[in-house]
Amino acid sequence: MKVLVVGSGGREHSLCWAIAKSPKCSELFCAPGNAGTAALARNVDVAAEDLDGIVRFVKDGAIDFVVVGPEAPLVAGLVDRLDALGVKSFGPTAAAAELEGSKAFTKDLCAKYDIPTADYDRFDEPDAAKEYIRTHGAPIVVKADGLAAGKGVIICRNENEAYAAVDQIMIEEAFGEAGAEIVVEQFLEGEEASFFALVDGETALPLIGAQDHKRAHDGDEGPNTGGMGAYSPAPVIDDAMAARVMAEIIEPTIRGMAAEGRPYKGVLYAGLMIDDEGPKLIEYNARFGDPECQVMMMRLKSDLLEVLLACAEGRLAKTRLEWRDETAMIVVMAAKGYPGKY
Length: 342
What we know:
Layout: E1 2-7, H1 10-19, E2 27-32, E3 42-43, H2 51-60, E4 65-68, H3 71-76, H4 78-85, E5 88-90, H5 94-101, H6 103-112, E6 120-123, H7 126-136, E7 140-144, E8 153-156, H8 159-171, E9 182-186, E10 191-200, E11 204-206, E12 211-212, E13 215-217, E14 221-224, E15 229-232, H9 239-259, E16 265-275, E17 278-285, H10 292-299, H11 304-312, E18 328-331
Parallel strand pairs: 1-2, 1-4, 2-3, 4-5
Antiparallel strand pairs: 6-9, 7-8, 7-9, 10-11, 10-16, 12-15, 13-14, 15-18, 16-17
Helix pairs in contact: 1-10, 7-8
């Protein structure tokens, strides 16, 4: 079958690397791809956010299956467009991708369905947010509601930093429309980990644990980034903890999304904080993490294309995954100044 992977990062390189090994894959394309994907697939000069261009290529190229890597085209409704064409795809609809597209939506879902997370409030006006900060004190976390390429979360050690974060997001509009509304939430302590599950609307299949490190500088210092490196397995997520995450966080989310009329299909990526009390949800992403996807693909023994098709076709209940026992690790090389302007 002809397969298109949408995206241009290390995540998409690793997805292409795994899909290319499948006997089911006759031709592989990546839009727009990168130098790494060029060795595995035919790069297509269409941006991941260019939904019209992607749909046109899918129609003209008679693509059978589309794997969407990044969040922006998911939130913009690429899967909905492909569904309308009758083309199979891996990823959630725009309504389901709201789990990543709006942090406020996710926090409200957690409150409604008793999913453990940090105490919070949401604000569309900076003075009210600052009053909440004055009342609750620091450390505290300020988040842009919308998509900000993994950089819209500001951990504030004192109240002045929190006020500045509110101004940066809401007044200076550092993240554009993504910061029109913000979430201000309790600072959680513990060990951060990433948990991934494939979801076909009803069944959830847990993947292996991975852990990324978001701070830009050595010693867990500096601003948050999209991830400076990752490893798998994640020691903090043993079998017992994985079972708790599934029972307390993932499965209630799937049931809640179905009840809200937004059934979730694709990979569900839970950013967690784990302490002595157990796991709490920091945020959801509607796609594979980058860099975590890279270490996960290195450990996967099963045919990735067959697994993603099973997810898209609602066959996860009969799917089993095999993983390599070895540890995988990657380090990210980034431009000097990242995640700021460079």
